[in-house]
Design a protein that fits this description.
The chain has 54 residues and is mostly beta strands. The chain has no helices and 3 strands. Helices cover 0% and strands 22% of the residues. The protein has a domain at 6-37.
């Protein structure tokens, strides 16, 4: 997938990140982040890559 058009979603808790990392900081599980297509952004500013639980 192209950079900037994907996000990494934790398969255990649903938190998402801009970059892959080994451990989900929201639930503490290891190797559960999977790359998925990011939804189209709304507005003109991009957020920072922190955990967000849906």
């Amino acid at each position: 997938m192209a950079r900037g058009n994907s996000q990494f979603v934790c398969q255990a808790c649903g938190a998402f990140y801009a970059k892959w990392q080994g451990q989900c900081t929201a639930c503490g599980e290891w190797n559960t982040l999977v790359e998925e297509a990011a939804p189209p952004s709304v507005g003109g500013k991009k957020g920072r890559g922190g955990a967000t639980v849906a």
